[in-house]
């Protein structure tokens, strides 16, 4: 916690869903709760999913309930086990544990088929042979009721036989489907005889070639919830109308679960400068606008991990934004502030010179060196200390030296004193420049006995700059990031290419960093003093070729 953050008493979060659960438990509707997080494995999870994960797993944790992880895998053409694996990894990394084994909607394909047959037997489902275009046309619009399909009144026997044929692969894709028989005039379009099974000659990542018909989301989801004993089925607001269908299906099948699940909707997370749609994120990956799903500029959980965000900071962010039914767009600074606050507490400190210029300490002998101690964290003594090697030649950042400057500039200036962090006070005497006027070397003198001490005349030196030993520092590549998009609401853009920030990655080669950073673990984010937070890149960092990613700057760059 930074010094000026007030200590607030921890309050139990509340929101409308918690109020519903409190009431349900009070009324003994359930003795315990079970929630689920139901991603479709058709992409990597993003920050919006983090909100849903924190909500569902957080409720289970706080109410001593259980939360299932269920892959909602009814559309084999877009799904892949790569996504299944990444989703498991992301949920675990965020710090949550699902109950039992991960579940798959495809585990229930046999049962779902049986319930579809049940609906047919009750005269509540029929095989339609209208084409997909005709079905759309017959469906009507928000202002116009739909029309009944000419196949709607087939007999139960005929429907059973045709559905069997569908299952046996005797129909071509798009020539038949199973529809629930509800109401073509309903004011809810989703209730106008929704398709519940369609034909897809497509291998499935879990069931292989066993099926050529696949159940639709609305039919699958409620039944899967009921089969798993889910009590509170929480989803985003776009499914509000579908709740009618959710309830209709459960009311008309013989699945008598003691905990008949109910669906509750909350508003999805929209984050400034970010896309929160797997489909659009996949486009960025496929078009190579980014370097994979875990590109550190991506708002994916894997991207945020590679960037150096901590799980705790993402959980804190999700807790701060809350759960409501209001549509809103959250500022990027809200997320970054959570990351900064957490990292300020936990990040080990190190020194890295991103734009190095050599400094020669002329009154320090070339064959001399000494070890100075630096704390790894300013307030956490448990973090210990490390050795800094002071040598005649060091590097400082180019931006930390000027030949002349006014009093506002509290860094190194010709003829003036500055403190090297955790080390001596030095004074700049002169400098070398190349033909273009760039400074190539700065010559200084150091003042003996000033490690942890003021100048001999008692004067304090205001400026403190970071540095590394030229002899011991190692070279590193540093990736500096900006937002991937130039506009706050990229989701609204028709053409991504026109709003992609082409300068969102700047690669710095030849930064000079403390030698122990060669062994940095990608799971540890450092504060490079006076520069920002950085972590080793999990894909490219090696001992021989260190690579660091900017996690977040020290200060909010979104403020005007
Ligand atoms: P996308 O449009 O990115 O594909 P989705 O809703 O289709 O998202 P799912 O895999 O079906 O993705 O989502 C799993 C769960 O995460 C669902 O319960 C969904 O409501 C929730 N979710 C998805 N996006 C968000 C978001 N931006 N904010 C909050 N919850 C979300
Ligand atoms: Mg979806």
Describe what you observe in this structure.
- There is one protein chain.
- The model is unreliable at 1-6 (pLDDT under 50).
- It is built from 12 helices and 29 strands.
- The chain is an alpha/beta fold.
- Helix 7 packs across helix 8.
- It has a 7-stranded mixed sheet. A 7-stranded mixed sheet has the order 23-20-21-22-14-17-24, with no helix packed on it.
- The radius of gyration is 31 Å and the shape is elongated.
- It binds adenosine-5'-triphosphate and magnesium ion.
- The site of adenosine-5'-triphosphate has 16 residues, from helix 2, strand 8 and helix 9.
- Adenosine-5'-triphosphate binds at residues 38-40, 48-49, 51-52, 72, 235-236, 268-269, 276-279.
Bound molecules: adenosine-5'-triphosphate, magnesium ion
Proportion of beta-strand residues: 15-25%
What is the strand arrangement across the widest sheet?
12-27-28-29-25-26-13
Main β-sheet description: 7 strands, mixed
Terminal CA distance: 24 Å
Number of strands: 29
Helix content: 10-25%
Q: If helices are DSSP runs of H or I spanning 4 or more residues, what is the number of helices?
A: 12
**What are the segments in which pLDDT stays under 50 over at least 5 consecutive residues?**
1-6
Structural class of the secondary elements? alpha/beta
| CA gyration radius, whole angstroms | 31 Å
Mean pLDDT metric: 95
Shape: elongated
């Amino acid at each position: 916690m930074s010094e000026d953050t007030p200590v607030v008493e921890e309050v139990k979060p509340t929101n409308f869903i918690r109020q519903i659960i409190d009431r349900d438990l009070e009324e003994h509707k359930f003795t315990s709760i079970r929630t689920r997080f139901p991603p479709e494995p058709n992409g990597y999870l993003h920050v919006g999913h983090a909100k849903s994960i924190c909500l569902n797993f957080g409720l289970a944790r706080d109410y001593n309930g259980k939360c299932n992880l269920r892959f909602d895998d009814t559309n084999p053409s877009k799904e892949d086990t790569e996504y299944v694996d990444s989703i498991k990894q992301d949920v675990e990394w965020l710090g949550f544990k699902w109950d039992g084994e991960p579940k798959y909607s495809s585990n229930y394909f046999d049962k779902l088929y049986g319930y579809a047959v049940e609906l047919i037997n009750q005269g509540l489902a029929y095989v339609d042979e209208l084409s997909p275009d005709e079905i759309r046309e017959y469906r009507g619009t928000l202002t116009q009721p739909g029309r009944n399909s000419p196949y709607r009144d087939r007999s139960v026997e005929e429907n059973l036989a045709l559905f069997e044929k569908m299952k046996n692969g005797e129909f071509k894709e798009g020539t038949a489907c199973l529809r629930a028989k509800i109401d073509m005039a309903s004011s809810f379009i989703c209730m106008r005889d929704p398709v519940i099974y369609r034909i897809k000659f497509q291998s499935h990542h879990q069931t292989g070639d066993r099926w050529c018909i696949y159940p639709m989301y609305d039919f699958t989801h409620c039944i899967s919830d009921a089969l798993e004993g889910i009590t509170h089925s929480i989803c985003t607001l776009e499914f509000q109308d579908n709740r009618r269908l959710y309830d209709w299906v459960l009311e008309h099948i013989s699945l008598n679960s003691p905990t008949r699940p109910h669906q509750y909707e909350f508003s999805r997370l929209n984050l400034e400068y970010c896309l929160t749609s797997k489909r659009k994120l996949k486009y960025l990956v496929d078009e190579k606008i980014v370097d994979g799903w875990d590109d550190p500029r991506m708002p994916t959980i894997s991207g945020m991990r590679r960037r150096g965000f901590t799980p705790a900071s993402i959980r804190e962010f999700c807790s701060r934004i809350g759960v409501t039914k209001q549509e809103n767009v959250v500022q990027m600074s809200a997320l970054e502030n959570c990351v900064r606050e957490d990292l300020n507490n936990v990040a080990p400190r190190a020194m890295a010179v991103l734009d190095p210029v050599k400094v020669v300490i002329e009154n320090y002998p070339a064959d001399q060196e000494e070890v100075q101690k630096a704390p790894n964290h300013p307030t956490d003594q448990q973090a210990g200390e490390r050795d800094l090697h002071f040598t005649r030649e060091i590097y400082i950042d180019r931006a930390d030296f000027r030949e002349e400057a006014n009093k506002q500039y509290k860094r190194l200036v010709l003829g003036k004193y500055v403190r090297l962090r955790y080390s001596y006070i030095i004074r700049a005497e002169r400098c070398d420049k190349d033909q273009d006027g760039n400074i190539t070397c700065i010559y200084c003198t150091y003042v003996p006995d000033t490690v942890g001490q003021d100048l001999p005349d008692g004067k304090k030196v205001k400026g403190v700059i970071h540095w590394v030993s030229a002899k011991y520092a190692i070279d590193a590549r540093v990736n500096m990031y900006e937002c991937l998009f130039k506009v706050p609401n990229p989701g609204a853009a028709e053409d991504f290419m026109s709003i992609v920030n082409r300068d969102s990655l700047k690669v710095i080669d030849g930064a000079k960093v403390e030698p122990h950073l060669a062994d940095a673990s990608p799971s540890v984010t450092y504060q490079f003093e006076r520069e920002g937070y950085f972590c080793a890149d999990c894909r490219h960092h090696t001992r021989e070729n260190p690579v660091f990613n900017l996690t977040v700057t020290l200060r909010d760059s979104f403020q005007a």
